[in-house]
Design goal:
Blueprint lengths: L1 H7 L1 E4 L3 E5 L5 E4 L9 H15 L6 H9 L9 E6 L2 E5 L6 H8 L6 E5 L12 H7 E6 L4 H7 L6 E3 L3 H11 L5 E4 L12 H43 L14 H23 L4 H11 L4
Parallel strand pairs: 5-9, 6-7, 6-9, 7-8
Antiparallel strand pairs: 1-2, 2-3, 4-5
Helix pairs in contact: 2-3, 7-8, 8-9
């Protein structure tokens, strides 16, 4: 009966999960899985929609959840772009007024880097002050409204200028930490820099995707360079009949590998000095030349 269904199909929503209770067994899904549907209001809607589907016979809750997790927002409307080094990027370029920006900000708990600005259309940025204080860690201002944004928010939140979307992504990653959200939700029209809001959003997404490729290429190149340095110095030491443990670059993390190489250089330099008691000017020059390649 309907009353039986009401007893057997229930859901509880929290900041981290949605817990469903069915006649078979409880089922829990993590809210972080819903990349395109963030915020308590969306999670409550998800819970209601799943319960409605579960009321239909022969409907698998696992299949329902898979469908929700694969849901894609319309372009430029709280559109999840990508996560780079733990920092998630969202394209909400359609948010050309403060009401839309407030809704977007309320979808995330904290640690937002907000991309704000463009061509104003009677924009009252003061309407954002209270929410910005709650969960925005930094504002990156773009377009014609940069001076006004920086002045208005100077006592509310750190605000910096970016010249274009590539600069936006670069500065956002420099300011961001794992778990942060970078949100393009400008509260302004786009016509000072772009053809329209869709063009602005597309350029933002291209900048994010391009930056990710650059990061991956840099790490790959760095790994090759570091291995080359180790190989050169190892060969140099062998020519002096000096034995030393040689590291192999395998981590694919440029910062970790750089630390490994620097430790290796210290050990190699010490081995060279200990072997000879001192080092000749020629040896010193050769060693510094190899070591200098990691700068």
């Amino acid at each position: 009966s309907n009353s039986d269904k009401e007893k057997l199909c229930r859901a509880a929503v929290s900041e981290t999960e949605i817990r469903f209770e069915t006649e078979e067994k409880p089922f829990t899904v993590q809210t972080e899985n819903f990349k395109e549907l963030t915020g308590a209001h969306n999670w409550e809607n998800i819970a209601a929609a799943v319960l409605a589907c579960m009321a239909i016979e022969e409907t698998s809750i696992t299949d329902i959840i898979k469908g929700v997790e694969s849901f894609k927002n319309l372009p430029h409307r709280m559109e999840y772009v990508k996560t780079i080094k733990g920092v998630s990027f969202y394209n909400d370029s359609k948010a050309t007024n403060t009401d839309a920006v407030l809704r977007a900000l309320e979808s995330f708990k904290e640690n937002i880097i907000l991309i704000l600005g463009g061509r104003e259309k009677g924009t009252d940025f003061s309407l954002l002050f209270e929410q910005v204080k709650k969960n925005v860690k930094r504002i990156i201002a773009i377009g014609e409204s940069v001076p006004r944004i920086i002045e208005l928010f100077k006592d509310i939140c750190p605000a910096i200028q970016a010249e274009d979307m590539n600069d936006v992504v670069k500065k956002a990653l420099a300011a961001g930490s794992s778990g942060d959200v970078v949100l393009l939700s400008p509260a302004c029209a786009s016509f000072d820099m772009f053809k329209d809001y869709a063009h602005r959003g597309d350029v933002f997404k291209d900048a994010v995707n391009t930056h990710e490729v650059h990061i991956k290429n840099y790490e790959y190149i760095s790994l090759s360079i570091y291995q080359n340095i180790v190989d050169k110095i190892s060969s140099f030491l062998r020519s002096k009949q000096i034995e030393i443990e040689v590291p192999i670059m395998t981590n694919n993390n440029s910062e970790i590998e750089r630390t490994v190489v620097i430790d290796f250089l210290h050990d190699a330099w010490k081995g060279l000095k200990d072997f000879y008691g001192t080092t000749s000017p020629e040896d010193t020059i050769s060693f510094i030349k190899f070591a200098g390649e990691i700068d």
